[in-house]
Protein backbone atom coordinates (compact mmCIF):
# COMPACT_ATOMS: atom_id res chain seq x y z
CA UNK A 1 0.00 0.00 0.00
CA UNK A 2 1.61 3.28 -1.06
CA UNK A 3 1.96 6.19 1.34
CA UNK A 4 -0.60 8.94 1.10
CA UNK A 5 0.42 12.58 0.89
CA UNK A 6 -0.60 13.08 4.52
CA UNK A 7 1.36 10.03 5.75
CA UNK A 8 4.60 10.80 3.95
CA UNK A 9 5.83 13.62 6.25
CA UNK A 10 5.31 11.44 9.34
CA UNK A 11 7.38 8.63 7.85
CA UNK A 12 10.06 11.13 6.82
CA UNK A 13 10.27 12.43 10.38
CA UNK A 14 10.60 8.88 11.67
CA UNK A 15 13.29 8.11 9.10
CA UNK A 16 15.17 11.24 10.16
CA UNK A 17 15.06 10.07 13.77
CA UNK A 18 16.79 6.86 12.73
CA UNK A 19 19.30 8.82 10.64
CA UNK A 20 20.23 10.62 13.85
CA UNK A 21 20.84 7.24 15.47
CA UNK A 22 22.69 5.80 12.49
CA UNK A 23 26.26 6.03 13.77
CA UNK A 24 27.95 4.05 16.57
CA UNK A 25 29.49 7.18 18.08
CA UNK A 26 26.11 8.90 18.29
CA UNK A 27 24.64 5.83 19.98
CA UNK A 28 27.50 5.95 22.50
CA UNK A 29 26.91 9.67 23.14
CA UNK A 30 23.21 9.03 23.72
CA UNK A 31 24.02 6.16 26.09
CA UNK A 32 26.32 8.45 28.07
CA UNK A 33 23.57 11.06 28.24
CA UNK A 34 21.06 8.39 29.26
CA UNK A 35 23.16 7.60 32.31
CA UNK A 36 23.13 11.17 33.66
CA UNK A 37 20.90 14.23 33.83
CA UNK A 38 23.45 16.10 31.74
CA UNK A 39 27.05 15.72 30.57
CA UNK A 40 29.56 18.41 29.69
CA UNK A 41 31.24 18.44 26.30
CA UNK A 42 34.57 17.94 28.08
CA UNK A 43 33.25 14.77 29.73
CA UNK A 44 31.80 13.54 26.42
CA UNK A 45 35.14 14.13 24.76
CA UNK A 46 36.98 12.24 27.49
CA UNK A 47 34.55 9.30 27.36
CA UNK A 48 34.44 9.03 23.56
CA UNK A 49 38.09 9.95 22.92
CA UNK A 50 36.99 11.94 19.86
CA UNK A 51 38.69 15.00 18.49
CA UNK A 52 36.67 18.10 19.44
CA UNK A 53 35.67 18.76 15.83
CA UNK A 54 34.36 15.20 15.35
CA UNK A 55 32.42 15.30 18.62
CA UNK A 56 30.96 18.64 17.60
CA UNK A 57 29.78 17.22 14.27
CA UNK A 58 28.05 14.28 15.97
CA UNK A 59 26.42 16.56 18.54
CA UNK A 60 25.19 18.80 15.72
CA UNK A 61 23.51 15.82 14.04
CA UNK A 62 21.87 14.82 17.32
CA UNK A 63 20.64 18.40 17.86
CA UNK A 64 19.36 18.63 14.26
CA UNK A 65 17.30 15.50 14.78
CA UNK A 66 15.98 16.76 18.15
CA UNK A 67 17.62 13.98 20.16
CA UNK A 68 19.66 16.24 22.46
CA UNK A 69 19.54 19.73 23.90
CA UNK A 70 22.45 21.88 24.96
CA UNK A 71 22.94 24.66 27.47
CA UNK A 72 25.92 26.99 27.73
CA UNK A 73 27.07 27.94 31.20
CA UNK A 74 30.00 30.30 31.04
CA UNK A 75 32.64 28.64 28.89
CA UNK A 76 31.16 25.15 29.29
CA UNK A 77 28.41 23.48 27.27
CA UNK A 78 26.29 20.73 28.79
CA UNK A 79 24.13 18.26 26.90
CA UNK A 80 21.08 16.26 27.92
CA UNK A 81 18.58 14.07 26.17
CA UNK A 82 15.80 16.10 24.61
CA UNK A 83 13.32 13.43 25.69
CA UNK A 84 13.78 10.76 28.37
CA UNK A 85 12.11 8.23 26.08
CA UNK A 86 15.28 8.18 24.00
CA UNK A 87 16.91 6.25 26.86
CA UNK A 88 14.01 3.78 26.74
CA UNK A 89 14.40 3.46 22.96
CA UNK A 90 18.10 2.66 23.39
CA UNK A 91 17.34 0.09 26.07
CA UNK A 92 14.73 -1.64 23.88
CA UNK A 93 17.13 -1.58 20.92
CA UNK A 94 19.82 -3.19 23.07
CA UNK A 95 17.42 -5.93 24.21
CA UNK A 96 16.39 -6.53 20.60
CA UNK A 97 20.02 -6.73 19.48
CA UNK A 98 20.92 -9.14 22.29
CA UNK A 99 18.02 -11.35 21.24
CA UNK A 100 19.11 -11.29 17.61
CA UNK A 101 22.72 -12.05 18.49
CA UNK A 102 21.65 -14.85 20.79
CA UNK A 103 19.55 -16.45 18.05
CA UNK A 104 22.41 -16.07 15.57
CA UNK A 105 24.83 -17.62 18.05
CA UNK A 106 22.52 -20.61 18.54
CA UNK A 107 22.23 -21.06 14.77
CA UNK A 108 25.99 -20.81 14.40
CA UNK A 109 26.55 -23.48 17.05
CA UNK A 110 24.10 -25.73 15.17
CA UNK A 111 26.49 -25.72 12.20
CA UNK A 112 29.03 -27.68 14.27
CA UNK A 113 26.94 -30.79 13.59
CA UNK A 114 27.08 -30.42 9.80
CA UNK A 115 28.97 -33.13 7.97
CA UNK A 116 32.41 -32.22 6.71
CA UNK A 117 32.81 -31.25 3.07
CA UNK A 118 35.69 -32.60 1.02
CA UNK A 119 38.44 -30.03 0.58
CA UNK A 120 36.97 -27.60 3.14
CA UNK A 121 38.72 -26.98 6.43
CA UNK A 122 36.49 -26.53 9.45
TrEMBL record:
SMART domains xrefs: HTH_ARSR
- Note the CDD domains from the entry: HTH_ARSR
What are the UniProt keywords, alphabetically?
DNA-binding, Transcription, Transcription regulation
Q: Which residues form the signal peptide?
A: none
Specify whether Zinc-finger is a keyword of the entry.
no
In alphabetical order, the GO MF annotations are: DNA binding; DNA-binding transcription factor activity
Residues folding into a coiled coil are none
Per the database record, which ranges form the HTH arsR-type domain? 6-101
Segments passing through the bilayer: none
Key word DNA-binding present in the record? yes
Name-wise, this protein is: Transcriptional regulator
Amino acid sequence: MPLTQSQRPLYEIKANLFKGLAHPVRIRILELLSAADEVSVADLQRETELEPSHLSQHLAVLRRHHLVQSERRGSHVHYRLADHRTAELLAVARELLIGILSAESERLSDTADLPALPGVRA
